[in-house]
Amino acid sequence: MSLQGKVALVTGAASGIGEQCARKLAADGAAVVIADLNLVNAQKVADDIVASGGKALAVAMDVTNEDAVNAGIEEAVAKLGSIDVLVSNAGIQIVNPIEDYAFADWKKMLAIHLDGAFLTTKAAIKHMYADGKGGSIIYMGSVHSHEASKLKSAYVTAKHGLLGLARVVAKEGGSRGVRANVVCPGFVRTPLVDKQIPEQAKALGISEAQVVKDVMLKETVDGEFTTIDDVANTVAFLAGFGSAALTGQSIVVSHGWFMQ
Ligand code: NAD
């Protein structure tokens, strides 16, 4: 579906899933805003998209900071004219059993995943409403929006929370053309997952190969990782979908790990 003339802002777009979402949305014709804590890498992604004929802008943004979020969205609108698509994707992972889970880590996790989703939605939706064109908001959930795993109290709580936020935004935005959905990937080999493999091996007392086979991919239908392309293609589909038939939904992209 063509996104020609649309502006899409992707948070956490300097790496992994967010980066591929930005590349795919740009390839489909959108001007993309690469919003990330890491401005150096965000700029590299933006330069690369521009070099291949796309339109991209790198913006420094800490999604937990209201002023930074508002400034980034305002800069994007000032330079590109609007926000039609928001992909709230920035995220980190901290694994630990709950009895050892530091309260500071819990708060950091909820701040990035939930405050970030709330703040970017609040700042972007005003523009979607104001120009009367509506828009598409996509939250990066996870199979952990539906399932639980050991060691992931904060992550599972936050990812479940995004389902609630998306449903409220879908109801509030419905009459004004704003759709909100959650994409829920299984395990994808990105820096976020590569970091977890040795950590989980240590915490669970098993080998790294066992973490991959028996923890991460055990419930898939084919023992395969989900890819960044699988996720980016789903995001692009939701971004370009033409009606509110698809709103308030979660789409699970996980090689059958979770079936709803
Ligand atoms: P990644 O580590 O490759 O990329 C995350 C990006 O987010 C980085 O560029 C980082 O700089 C940025 N970021 C971190 N904190 C930020 C903040 N406060 N403000 C702005 N940017 C910030 O990770 P990824 O695997 O691509 O994960 C992206 C999203 O996908 C996350 O929400 C994650 O929970 C979700 N997800 C990942 C997987 C997976 O298996 N990799 C599965 C399901 C869901």
From TrEMBL:
Listed Pfam families: adh_short
InterPro entries per record: 3-OHbutyrate_DH, NAD(P)-bd_dom_sf, Sc_DH/Rdtase_CS, SDR, SDR_fam
TM segment ranges: none
Top-level lineage group: Bacteria
Molecular-function annotations in GO: 3-hydroxybutyrate dehydrogenase activity
GO biological process: monocarboxylic acid metabolic process
CDD domains: SDR_c (cd05233)
UniProt family annotation: Belongs to the short-chain dehydrogenases/reductases (SDR) family.
Protein name as annotated: 3-hydroxybutyrate dehydrogenase
Record organism: Caballeronia terrestris
